[in-house]
C-alpha cells in the first residue's frame, strides 16, 4: 500500500511538470512562423492584422515587381524571418492591397509594423532611407 502511494505521488509530480511545461510554452512562446508569407489580397492583409495574437509583431512588406529594392528587401526579410521566428513576416504586392493608388512606386518598398492590431511604425521608400 505504501509503495502504491509513492508511485501515485511520482505520477502526480510528473503530470504537474508536464502541465506546467505545456502552459509555459503556450503563454510564453506563442506561435512560430520562420518564413516570409505572401498575402494575396487586401482582405487577407486585414485578417492577418486583426486576428493575430495581440503580442505578435507583424512586419508587412508592400512591394511591386520591377521596383528598385523590392527584391532585395524580400530576400533580406526571408533571412530575418528564419532567424526571428516569433515575428510574423508578410509581403503583399501593392496592386493586390486594394489601395494600390496609395502605394505608388515613389513610396515602395514600404514596411509596416503592427502589434495588437495597431500600426506602430511605417517605413516608406525603404531603399532611400537605408540604401
From TrEMBL:
The organism named in the record is Cyrtopodion sp. TG-2012
Taxonomy of the source species: Eukaryota, Metazoa, Chordata, Craniata, Vertebrata
Q: Name one GO cellular component term.
A: photoreceptor outer segment
Which CDD domains does the entry mention? Answer: Phd_like_Phd
Please report the name of this protein according to its UniProt entry. Answer: Phosducin
Signal peptide as annotated in the record: none
Gene3D superfamilies, A to Z: Glutaredoxin
Coiled-coil-forming residues are none
Membership in a protein family: Belongs to the phosducin family.
Q: Which residues form the Phosducin domain?
A: 1-130
A Gene Ontology annotation in the biological process aspect, one of them, is: regulation of G protein-coupled receptor signaling pathway
Q: What InterPro entries has UniProt attached to this entry? A: Phosducin, Phosducin-like_reg, Phosducin_thioredoxin-like_dom, Thioredoxin-like_sf
- Superkingdom in the source lineage: Eukaryota
Entry's Pfam families? Answer: Phosducin
Q: Which gene encodes it?
A: pdc
